Predict the structure of GtrA family protein.
Amino acid sequence: MKIFKIKPIEKVQAIVVLVLLIALNLVLISKYPDFVNIMPENYKEFIHQFKVSGFDPITYSTVTNWYQGYNVYRHPLLAFMMWIPNVLNAWLMDLTGLNLVQYVVGLILLFCGFYSYIFMRRILVEVIGVKEKDGIILNAMFFGFAYTMVGLVVPDHFVISQMLLLLTFYICGLTINNGKRLSILKTIILFVLTAGVTLSNGVKIYLSALFTNKWRFFRPGYLILGVILPAALMWTFCRWEYREFVLPNEKAVQAKKAAQRRADLDKFIKIYAEQTGETDSALMAQGGRDLYKKHIWQVHEKNMKDPWNAHTGKPIAKEGFMKWTDVSTDRVETIWHNLFGETIQLHQDYLLDDTLKNRPVIVEYRYVFNYVVEALIIALLLIGIWMGRKQRFLWLILSCFAFDMVLHLGLGFGINEIYIMGPHWLYIIPIAIAYIFKHANTKWHQPLRVITALLAVFLLGWNGYLFISY
């Protein structure tokens, strides 16, 4: 637990960041003052009322009235991690008569946001070796990114995942610098915590371990105990969790839908008989089925026009994990306007609207300078990658970024709202730029510092203003 102890050199930064994070959390809490009146029996009201981009307030619902509301194959342990907060919230509810879930969850978000800053600072200064002042500037830029900022306060899993990933990178970075190996025990702990929150991020733990331990990663003892066994147990747990919590509800829903279909068919048979005067039961049944099929098709056509379907691309397959893929959404437009656009700078139009409700998949900025900022950040990222191309730690970070890009741009998972995934990969930008700071000669160091500081100030001001005004 020493890793969570604040070092003397971090204390001033820690106080400033803590105050700002508290203020930012209170901004979001103040947007929904009536949430204190939502009681456990109405816990799903959070999902109906909460609207910030495509984020889901399932954590509010789970902490209010514990249930397995997350997708068990994507967030296998997250609901269980919320059990203690649920107990605390229930006690506070009994004590006050109010649902203080926003404050209980806010403490979790505050903790993860705070240590995201601390671990990023340590990565920049202790692992990469930039100066303290440069680390502050790069960290400020990182926290100025739109979906780093938004992810800090929304009741979703993203800031938790972000903190755990940065913790992993910090541990692996120190291990690489010290010429040591990542132990089996540390690998298991990091995998269980990180994959338990977001299963796909478990791959990043193993990528980090691979670049840290190099060929030793493939030693039978490490590979079996540190990689294969934890992954197999996690998947087994996912399957058990699905059978225990999800399957009974799915069967109940399917049974209810089947009963509704039978009732609807009987209704259309009756309508057909009234319209035609038919008395033959076989002809009535056939006519009713034809009317019912026509009705189903009309409903389908109407539903396909809704944003939920219209903004969802064509999947590779309609069953299993492949149903979440997308092969039709334009990748170039997505990269320019969303991946390096909305993720980093909020759009003024359709501000923090949901793509699955009313926001178009592609939104353009009103001003040219937003695109200039975007191009400058991309240029700095690419230069940083080139400057740090010989550093094993940067390749570790790049491998995790590449995994996300295969997932989102390659397979198209979540591509229509790719910006909300930002907390899973935005760390690559300040880390890559840090290598420019480290290797730049004296002549270019000060101009680089000024440019990065101006970017940080602009992003904090632009995104902070738009988020608060929202």
In short: The longest helix spans residues 220-276. The chain has a mean pLDDT of 92. DSSP finds 19 helices and no strands in the chain.
